[in-house]
Amino acid sequence: MNDRDAPSSHHRWDHLASDVLNGHALNAAEAQSILNCPDVELPALLAATYRVRHHFWGNEVQLYSLRNAKSGLCPEDCGYCSQSKVSDAEIPKYRWNDEATLLENARIAAENKSRTYCIVASGRGPTDREVEHVAGVVRKIKATYPLNVCCCLGLLTAGQAQTLAAAGVDRVNHNLNTSERYYPEICSTHTYADRVDTLRVVREAGMELCSGGIVGMGERQSDLVELALSLRELKVESIPVNFLHPIDGTPLEKRDDLNPRYCLKALCLFRLTNPESEIRIAGGRELQLRWLQPQGLYAANSLFVSDYLTTKGQTPEDDYRMIEDLGFVITGPGPETAKAKAALQSAGQEAINAS
Is 141 helix (H, G, I), strand (E, B) or coil? Predict the structure, then answer.
């Protein structure tokens, strides 16, 4: 196909978006076609994807702040991670932050216009005592700041999930990271099934699921498609899409598989396969999307603001400016999912009708 033929083929993306808005669940072949979108059609794909994004989320952008509450010292061998036992990366290593530190970072998160504060800890999974520590902090955060709280603590037991839910944790993050087929290529100390089990106990405890993946670890396109469809099957409310930041000292330090256009196609894939989910542009966006970062928000409706676990991000002020330049607005405090927002609006309408 040459450039002169391209406009006639652009209509297929609009048709695909219409199908999604009419309730059609994309199959694997349709999802794969998004990743195979010719670059000349990328503007049309983004425009079609934006229709779906706008239908469910308008022009709002939800901001997240992340606190690495326990850094390094991890016995797992995840090849992408600077905190794993197989990493020689020079990163800070410390045990659990105390309550005062976590509360201070919650204050900063609220000041930075974040809707959600994420407490993250390295390791295979927490002890019951560590979970109680987090639960105590969460109760104080909820009593002090208008923040949703998400925790990422590794593999959880049913009892630990229930403790977090009782403390007021809104979501637990536990990324599937890639497909079940490819998972053994990036980690051998736990399995894909272990991760699914943690998502199951989180759901059974009544919390929402935050789970996504990392693009660019050497996976096939079909692995990325399988991940997107697995997240849909699990009805994940929040999907962080990370782009590999190949950190020196990690097994994946030499990988260089991505370009900004493919990253945008990946964001469109997750939006069109999971239309009602919150799609978040997460780690690696500054490195891999580069000057195309703003266009990612035509598919995604959420960002991490400021820094990540062991890598730096752009300043909050740069994020605010990017959002404003798009004509978008930062979402204020409140429920995160489209379903929760709809329930709140419905309750408000019922109250008006009752009065």
Answer: helix
Distance CA 172, CA 150 (A): 5
DSSP-derived secondary structure for 315-331: -HHHHHHHHHHTT-EE-
For residues 140 and 119, what is the distance between their CA atoms, to the nearest angstrom?
14
Decide: 244 and 229 in contact? Cβ < 8 Å.
no
Region for residue 327 given its phi and psi (left: phi exceeds 0; alpha: psi -120 to 50; beta: otherwise)? left
Identify whether the C-beta of residue 77 lies closer than 8 Å to the C-beta of residue 242.
no
- Residue 114 contacts residue 64 (beta carbons within 8 Å): yes
Determine which one of 37, 67, 78, 268 is catalytic.
78
Check: CB of residue 78 under 8 Å from CB of residue 89: no
Is 118 annotated in the active site? yes
Annotated catalytic residue: which of 37, 118, 187, 263? Answer: 118
Higher pLDDT, 11 or 75: 11
Q: Is 276 a residue whose pLDDT tops 60?
A: yes
Residue 33 structure tokens: 């076609």
- Average of per-residue pLDDT across 236-264: 92
Instruction: Identify whether 187 is a catalytic site residue.
Output: no
Using DSSP's 3-state secondary structure scheme, residue 17 falls into helix
What is the tens place of the pLDDT at every residue in 339-354? Answer: 676 676 676 656 556 6
Inter-residue contact 109 to 300 (CB < 8 Å) = no
* CB burial of residue 31 (10 Å; 0-12, 13-18, 19+): buried
- Catalytic residue flag (residue 210): yes
Catalytic residue list contains 150: yes
Q: Give the SS3 label for residue 295.
A: helix
Q: Name the nearest CA neighbour of 282 among 65, 9, 85.
A: 65
What global pTM score does this model have? 0.91
Q: Domain map of the chain by residue range?
A: 52-347
Q: Which CATH architecture has domain 52-347?
A: Alpha-Beta Barrel (3.20)
Reply yes or no on whether 232 is catalytic.
no
280 in active site: yes
Q: How far apart are CA 162 and CA 207, in angstroms?
A: 9
Q: Which two tokens mark 20?
A: 């999604």
